[in-house]
Every structure is written in structure tokens, then in C-alpha cells.
Task: inverse folding
């Protein structure tokens, strides 16, 4: 098991280097003079010169790449062009909110989705099963930001039940939790629909397999059959797909944070894009991508744990 | 001699490769077998029709303002109501089909072509430096969450319809590339390709006549799903103001307007949401239908 | 039904429904099985032998619909029992089944110990026995593995299925099949997917264990050679019907039905050198389009008018020896001269 973990982790290194190079080259592709582009209408010769010095924009490409990489390793991701704060500080401020949101959504969606999928496969002929099937189709079809807007419409405007904006007062757990309900739900809806369909299909396939026939031949049935014998196998594709789910979730978090006006990585990056604050954009995307890579790695390891065969491939 | 030998001599193996027309007809018949496929196909057809004939179908132009009648709910004159400038929502929805179809077709076509070319090249030269480089390239691009990568590219290139298509295409091409590469690898090992190689058939010929037709099936299914996601991404990025520029009628822009006026008029948000959801349902059902149509196991049902 | 008859199948008829297409998988199949007897069920692929096994143990797929018939086991008609009753009293205990391909027969994410103890636990529960401790169950499982010739069972029981070879997996299946003192073991081509040398070992093991325990065996196979070695009685099936049935030595040594004759003659045998192997022209009919009358008549060179008009009855043509052929019944024993 350990060997597999090491092998798989090592593979992320060249990818990570490629990611850094790609991110760095964003500045390279800016049309025109980078400093002017970043400063926009505020550009004066003095400011441009200062920015050039600060970001080493007038040096040749390899040197700039070098500065950037060294900075990353040291934990210095540059400084925001607008606010002057260090990018790493901004990230540390915003990241926890996004992580909280992501975990709530992913956790809720996984439990719900897998359970619904198994449920649909058990009751496949009854009306309940069809209902779940339709619900999951709806879930898959509604993108997260659309769901967020509709939820906000329904639960904040039409029936004012839940708070709509912000993340809740610091330190007040109940308030924070209330503010998390709609955003997590919005993010989770697509995922629940997808996982429900995936697990339903996966259960059908697993239930056709020989070892289920063996179990049935020895009078193993009902809940034991579905939940222990079948599910542990059927859920494996869901775990594999979780890693990708985090990526979609991070992408969706961008919209959710803007719509619900929550602090977070997504909002930070989008605001930086509006303001052409490239260091913040680079830093934010780097962290988001890093999170994605790590969750993919963890998903692969969990997958190998659940299906022992994979380790020996 | 014995009958068995004679019979073998008489047996001829005829490999019938169906022509393109036959394939399309077969595909059409197969999709219509499942109810979902029919619904999906009709909805997509409806969208395409709206996109093509928008000026003839929609009751008003997308920019025609009726300030006195703004924020109205559904009325006889404006079936779906009006937005904050009094523009007819139904008309804007129909014109929005244009943007949706244009962006999704454009981005998907671009990414599919680029992805397939790179993927097939890598798969055909399995184990070479090119192959490793391509795998690494795919992994790197796929390490970014799609939306975030698109954001970054737009941040650099600027906001416009064309840049949007480019950004989306870049985030999507590795999906097609991976599929193309995996399929190329397996087709390469099949007997008839090996026979072609042994006969000295040129590589290009092998690729175009044998490999590409065989990878089409999963690619087409992927295209179906991808169109849906592209429409959603266009809407999302336009919603953020990073997609098409207002006052273009795009569903995303309509959502952006609706968000600003969420307290005043729920209709501004509701109708574009419904449109986006329906578009997704349409493409999901269509690609499910395609998958079922091409899956040999399901064919027998 | 005499006191010693364990299993009595009467006129079992069932269809597979594929949409609106009806495939008659079994047609009026009847036979008896005594305690301790090994009955071979022979036939080509698709003749219904596996379906018969599945019907007895109650594991038919959903598309199967039983039209008529009885499966009498001990005092019950299995077809009249509910699924729960079968689970509780019969399946996995009194009637067990081992299948053809052991490769995927064990759940890949559980250890062998886990699967065996699960089954033992279910057996205990269904019998109203006291729950045994995990240790006791593991011990019993290890004993069972030792019984079926698996080396170092205490260690191997902790392995996952993918760490076992095909032959070893089949031994595990046999161990489970005999774990409860079963009365009837249905073996559906258990050695077909194994190497020939392993096949011989598994066969010997199976026969030894079932012989010792006086377990009845319904051995399903297309391999007449194997059946001739292990079964006392044999049943020849074709397209869902029983064509001939009786003591193995008689049926195979002196076949009454043209089909049986052709099957036997198509085997390479060291006794007949230089003679061309017989191959039956034509192919097995599709079960949704069975020929009228005798289902073999289109391929039978001796067929007469009657054969295509009426389904032959199964008649006892010699003591304990039944055949379903008009010509045999009319003319008595004869040498079928195939071209």
C-alpha cells in the first residue's frame, strides 16, 4: 500500500512543475506591455516603472520564471497590485471559507448521492425508483449557479427563510451554519444527481456479477446483499470520480461565493480578474489547482484501498 | 476429403464497412429507440432551429425596449414577461439560443479536433517522447479546474465572444485527447491494423481509414455531453461579466441582469434558468441515447 | 415417490421472456434423484441444463417465467414456497450450487475468511442455531479449507480472492458447498474453466467428499467423458427437453435415441482408430423458434412424418431407461447408421 502511495505521489511532481510554468506564462501572454495592462487607466510612467521593478517585468523570461519559482517555494506568491497585501496573506484569509464550503457540499452530496443511487437500484420498478431517477436527471441538469439563483429566489425572497448573503457572524456557529445551507446545497445538487445516476448504474452492473450470484446461492439477501456485498464494489467508481468532483466544486464555488457574497478563494480570484491583479490571479489559481491535485491523489489512494487489486497493477 | 475442409474453403469473410450515410441513418434509428433519446434529439433540434431562425421566430428584437412595460410578468404581449429595460424575455431567450449554440458548437468542435489530432498522434507513437510529452500536457491542463482555467485565460486575453470560445476549447481538449489516445492504443493492437502494417500500408492511411472511424463512437458521446457543459460555462462566465459583452442577448447575461434585480422580478431569473436547465436535459438525454445506441450490449434489447 | 427419493421434478416447463419473444428454456422436464445418487445432466450449450440447476435452487433470472411443473424436494414443492422460505430452509443449506467459472465467484473486496464466515453465520441463523463466535467460525472455515485440500489454510484464509488460482477458488466453492451438510449439490460445469490436470483433481475431490457424505449430486456438463466416470445415471437434454435418461453405462454404451448415439459417436475414442468423427449437420434450434414435433427432427437423418408432427413421449424402453423417440419406441433397440 505504501509503495503505491509513494509511486502515485511522485507522479504529481512533474505535473505540478508544468502547472507552475503554465501559470507563470500567463503574464507572458498579456497583450502589450504587462505593467500597463495590469495598471490599466491608472498607469503613469512612475507607477509603470515601479511595477516593472517589483515584478521583474523587464528582465528576460527565464529569470522571471526563476524568481517566480523561488518565490513559490519560499511561500511568497507575490503582492497584490491593488491592495499591496501579500498574496499569501490574502489566500490564507480566504481559503478556509472555501474549504469549509467545499467539504460541506462534497460530504453531503456523496452521502446523499450514493444512498439515493442504491435506493433507486433496490426499488427500480416502483414509482419511488422512477421518482429518484427523474430527480437525479433534474439535479444533473441544473448548473450550480443556476441552482444557487433559484434557491435564493425561493428561500430568501419568496419565502424568507434563510439568510442570503455573507458567511455569517464570526464565532457564531449557528449563524455560520445557516449561511452555509443554501450555498452547500446549490453546489451539492449537481453532484447528488450525478452520483445517484452513477451508483444506480453501477449497482445494476455489480448485481449481475458472479459473486453476487454466489452470495444469493447461500441465502444472503436483502440489506446485507445490497449494502455490504454490492455497494462496497459499486461505490468504487464514485470514489474514483470524487477527485474530479472537487475540481467541479472548486469551479462552482467561484459562482456560489459571488452570488451569495461569501468570502472565499473564488471570489478573490474573480475580483482579481476584474481588476487585472495578476499576482492574485496567479496565486489563487495555484492554490485552487493544488487543492485539486491533492484531492485527486487522495481519491486515487482511497480507490486503491477499496479495490486491493489496483495496488498490484 | 472431408466436408469440413471443403466448407472452410467456401467460407468467405466479408467485412462490410458501412458508408457514412448508412451510419448516420443507423445512428438516427438507434437513438430514436429510447424515449430519452427522442426527447433529447427533439429538444436539441428545437434549439438549433431557434438559433438559426431567431429573427423570424421571435416576436420582438432582442434589444427593443419598452420602458413603460418593464419588470412585467407574463402577459399576452410578452409571453414570458419583460426585463429591467422592458425587453421581451422570450425574444431574448430565443436569441440567447444563438449564443449558446454558437459557443458550444465552436468550442466543442475546436477542442475535439485538436484533442483528437494530438491524442491519435500520441497513441500511434506509443512510448515515444511525443507520447510522454502529450500525456504530461494533458495531465497539466486537467490539473486545473475547468472554470478556473477558463477564467485565467480570459483574464489574459480579454473578454470577447471569440476569446470565450478559445478559453473553453483549451480547457476541454485534453478530454478528447485522452479518449482518442486510449482508443488509438487499443485499435492499434487489433488484427486488421497489424495486417495493414504488415502489408506496408502507410501510416497516414491506417490512421484515417481504420483508427479514426473506430474512435468516433466514444468521441461523439463525449461531444454530446460536452455541448451541454459548454453552454453552462458560457452562461456562467457571461454571468460573471467575463463572457460575451452586454447588451448581447445571452442566457448568462440575462441571469446577471436578473441577479441585480432579484428582489424586483423573479421572472428575469426564472426563464433563463429554465432554458439552461432544459438545454442540459436535452444534451444529457441525447448523449445517453447516443451511448445506448452505440453500445452493442444494449442493441439487442 | 419412494422413501429414498430426494428430488422429484415433474413436467417442469419454463420460458425466458425477452420482451415479447418467448424462449422455451425447459419443456416438460421430469426426473428423480435418489439420496446419494450422482445424476449427470448432459447436452450442448443452450440445451437448458444450467437453467434446470438454477430453477431447482431458485436463482432464475427475472425474465424467467415458470409455466407449470413441480420440484419436489423432501416434502415440499419448491415452486410453491416463497422466496423467504427457500432462503431460510433450503438454499445454501440443503441445496447448494457451485458454478462454472470460479474466477469472479468470490467478492473481490472481501477476504475469503469474511465470505466463508458470513455464509456460516447465515446458515446458523436460518437453522435457529446459536450464534457462534468469530473465532469459532474462522476455525470452522479453516477446517473446511483443509478438507478440500488447500495448503496452509490458516494463512490463506486471510487472502483476497485475486490471490487464489482458479483451481483453488473452486476448492473454496466446494468447501462452501459442503459446509452445511447439504443434501443436494448442484454442480454446473465446475471443471470446464479449469486446466485438464486440475480438472482431474477437483473431480476426484468432489466425488470423494460427496461420496463420503452420501450427498446427492446433480452434475451438469457437456463432457460425456467426465459424466461417464462419475455419474450412476445420466440425462441427455436437447433444446429444453429430455431426450434420453437412464443408467450411464447403458445410455452411453447402448444409446436408444439418435441424438445420444451421435453425441457418443462424435467423441474421439481410442477404440476406434481411423474412423471419421461424426459431426451432426445443422445446428441447435433457437429456443423461440422450436421445430414442431420432435425438436431434433430437422437434423435427424431417420426422421419420418410423425416426428415432425407430434412431440414424442418419454417412454421407458428398458428398466430404468427412458427415451423420447418414436422410432426407438416403435422398432426397439437398433444400431443407428449415420452417414
Result:
Amino acid at each position: 500500500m505504501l509503495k503505491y502511495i509513494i509511486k502515485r505521489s511522485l507522479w504529481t511532481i512533474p505535473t505540478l512543475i508544468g502547472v507552475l510554468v503554465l501559470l507563470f506564462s500567463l503574464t507572458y501572454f498579456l497583450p502589450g506591455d504587462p505593467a500597463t495592462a495590469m495598471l490599466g487607466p491608472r498607469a503613469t510612467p512612475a507607477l509603470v516603472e515601479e511595477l516593472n521593478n517589483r515584478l521583474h517585468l523587464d528582465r528576460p523570461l527565464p529569470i522571471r520564471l526563476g524568481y517566480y519559482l523561488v518565490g513559490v517555494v519560499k511561500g511568497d506568491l507575490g503582492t497584490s497590485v491593488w491592495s499591496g497585501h501579500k498574496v499569501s496573506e490574502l489566500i490564507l484569509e480566504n481559503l478556509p471559507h472555501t474549504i469549509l464550503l467545499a467539504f460541506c457540499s462534497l460530504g453531503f452530496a456523496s452521502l446523499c448521492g450514493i444512498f439515493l443511487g442504491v435506493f433507486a437500484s433496490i426499488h427500480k420498478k416502483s414509482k419511488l425508483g422512477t421518482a429518484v431517477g427523474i430527480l437525479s436527471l433534474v439535479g444533473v441538469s441544473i448548473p450550480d449557479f443556476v441552482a444557487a439563483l433559484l434557491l435564493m429566489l425561493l428561500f430568501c425572497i419568496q419565502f424568507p427563510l434563510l439568510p442570503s448573503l455573507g458567511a455569517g457572524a464570526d464565532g457564531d456557529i449557528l449563524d455560520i451554519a445557516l449561511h452555509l445551507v443554501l450555498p452547500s446545497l446549490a453546489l451539492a445538487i449537481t453532484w447528488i444527481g450525478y452520483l445517484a445516476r452513477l451508483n444506480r448504474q453501477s449497482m445494476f452492473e455489480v448485481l449481475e456479477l458472479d459473486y453476487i450470484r454466489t452470495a444469493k446461492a447461500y441465502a444472503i439477501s436483502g440489506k446485507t446483499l445490497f449494502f455490504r456485498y454490492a455497494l462496497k464494489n459499486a461505490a468504487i467508481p464514485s470514489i474514483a470520480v470524487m477527485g474530479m468532483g472537487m475540481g467541479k466544486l472548486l469551479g462552482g464555488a467561484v459562482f456560489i461565493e459571488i452570488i451569495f457574497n461569501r468570502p472565499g478563494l473564488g471570489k478573490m480570484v474573480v475580483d482579481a480578474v476584474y481588476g487585472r491583479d495578476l499576482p492574485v490571479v496567479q496565486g489563487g489559481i495555484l492554490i485552487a489547482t493544488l487543492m485539486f491535485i491533492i484531492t485527486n491523489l487522495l481519491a486515487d489512494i482511497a480507490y486503491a484501498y477499496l479495490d486491493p487489486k489496483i495496488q498490484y497493477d | 476429403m472431408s466436408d469440413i475442409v471443403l466448407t472452410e474453403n467456401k467460407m468467405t469473410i466479408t467485412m462490410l464497412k458501412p458508408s457514412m450515410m448508412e451510419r448516420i441513418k443507423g445512428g438516427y434509428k438507434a437513438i430514436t429507440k429510447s424515449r430519452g433519446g427522442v426527447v433529447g434529439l427533439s429538444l436539441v433540434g428545437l434549439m438549433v432551429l431557434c438559433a438559426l431562425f431567431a429573427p423570424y421566430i421571435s416576436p420582438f428584437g432582442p434589444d427593443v425596449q419598452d420602458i413603460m412595460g418593464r419588470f412585467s410578468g407574463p402577459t399576452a404581449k410578452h409571453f414570458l414577461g419583460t426585463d429591467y429595460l422592458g425587453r421581451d424575455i422570450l425574444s431574448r431567450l430565443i436569441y440567447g439560443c444563438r449564443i449558446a449554440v454558437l459557443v458550444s458548437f465552436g468550442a466543442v468542435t475546436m477542442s475535439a479536433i485538436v484533442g483528437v489530432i494530438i491524442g491519435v498522434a500520441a497513441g500511434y507513437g506509443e512510448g515515444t517522447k511525443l507520447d510522454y510529452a502529450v500525456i504530461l500536457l494533458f495531465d497539466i491542463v486537467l490539473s486545473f479546474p475547468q472554470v478556473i482555467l477558463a477564467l485565467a485565460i480570459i483574464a489574459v486575453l480579454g473578454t470577447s465572444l471569440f476569446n470565450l470560445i478559445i478559453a473553453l476549447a483549451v480547457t476541454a481538449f485534453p478530454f478528447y485527447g485522452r479518449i482518442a489516445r486510449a482508443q488509438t492504443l487499443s485499435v492499434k493492437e487489433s488484427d486488421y491494423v497489424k495486417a495493414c502494417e504488415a502489408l506496408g500500408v502507410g501510416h497516414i492511411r491506417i490512421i484515417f481509414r481504420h483508427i479514426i472511424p473506430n474512435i468516433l463512437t466514444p468521441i461523439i458521446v463525449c461531444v454530446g455531453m460536452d455541448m451541454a457543459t459548454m453552454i453552462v460555462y458560457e452562461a456562467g462566465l457571461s454571468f460573471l461579466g467575463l463572457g460575451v459583452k452586454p447588451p448581447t442577448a445571452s442566457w448568462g447575461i440575462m441571469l446577471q441582469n436578473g441577479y441585480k434585480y432579484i428582489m424586483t422580478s423573479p421572472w428575469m431569473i426564472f426563464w433563463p434558468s429554465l432554458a439552461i436547465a432544459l438545454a442540459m436535459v436535452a444534451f444529457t438525454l441525447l448523449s445517453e441515447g447516443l451511448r445506448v445506441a452505440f453500445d452493442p450490449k444494449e442493441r439487442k434489447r | 415417490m419412494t422413501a429414498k427419493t430426494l428430488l422429484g421434478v415433474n413436467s417442469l416447463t419454463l420460458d425466458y421472456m425477452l420482451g415479447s419473444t418467448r424462449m422455451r428454456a425447459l419443456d416438460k422436464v421430469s426426473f428423480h434423484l435418489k439420496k446419494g445418487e450422482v445424476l449427470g445432466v448432459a447436452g450442448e450449450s443452450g440445451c437448458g441444463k444450467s437453467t434446470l440447476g438454477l430453477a431447482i435452487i431458485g436463482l432464475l433470472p427475472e425474465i424467467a417465467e415458470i409455466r407449470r411443473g413441480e420440484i419436489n424436494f423432501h416434502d415440499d414443492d419448491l415452486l410453491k414456497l416463497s422466496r423467504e422460505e427457500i432462503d431460510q430452509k433450503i438454499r445454501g443449506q440443503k441445496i447448494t450450487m457451485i458454478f462454472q467459472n470460479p474466477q469472479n465467484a468470490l467478492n473481490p473486496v472481501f477476504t475469503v475468511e469474511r465470505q466463508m464466515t458470513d455464509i456460516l453465520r447465515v446458515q446458523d441463523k436460518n437453522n435457529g442455531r446459536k450464534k457462534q463466535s468469530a473465532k469459532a467460525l474462522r476455525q470452522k472455515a479453516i477446517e473446511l479449507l483443509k478438507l478440500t485440500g488447500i495448503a496452509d489454510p490458516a494463512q490463506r484464509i486471510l487472502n483476497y480472492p485475486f490471490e487464489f488460482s482458479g483451481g483453488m477458488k473452486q476448492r473454496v466453492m466446494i468447501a462452501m458447498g459442503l459446509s452445511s451438510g447439504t443434501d443436494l449439490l448442484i454442480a454446473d460445469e465446475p471443471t470446464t474453466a479449469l486446466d485438464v490436470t486440475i480438472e482431474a483433481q477437483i473431480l476426484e475431490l468432489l466425488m470423494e467428499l460427496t461420496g463420503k457424505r452420501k450427498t446427492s449430486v446433480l452434475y451438469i456438463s457437456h463432457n460425456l467423458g467426465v459424466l461417464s466416470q462419475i455419474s450412476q445415471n445420466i440425462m441427455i437434454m436437447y433444446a429444453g427437453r429430455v431426450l434420453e435418461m437412464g443408467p450411464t453405462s447403458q445410455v452411453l454404451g447402448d444409446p436408444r435415441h439418435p441424438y445420444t448415439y451421435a453425441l457418443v459417436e462424435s467423441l474421439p475414442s481410442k477404440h476406434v482408430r481411423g474412423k471419421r468423427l461424426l459431426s451432426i449437420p445443422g445446428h441447435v434450434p433457437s429456443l423461440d423458434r422450436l421445430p414442431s414435433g420432435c425438436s431434433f427432427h430437422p437434423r435427424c437423418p431417420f426422421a419420418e412424418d410423425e416426428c415432425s408432427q407430434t412431440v414424442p413421449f418419454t417412454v421407458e424402453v428398458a428398466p430404468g431407461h427412458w427415451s423420447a423417440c418414436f422410432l426407438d419406441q416403435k422398432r426397439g433397440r437398433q444400431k443407428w447408421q449415420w452417414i
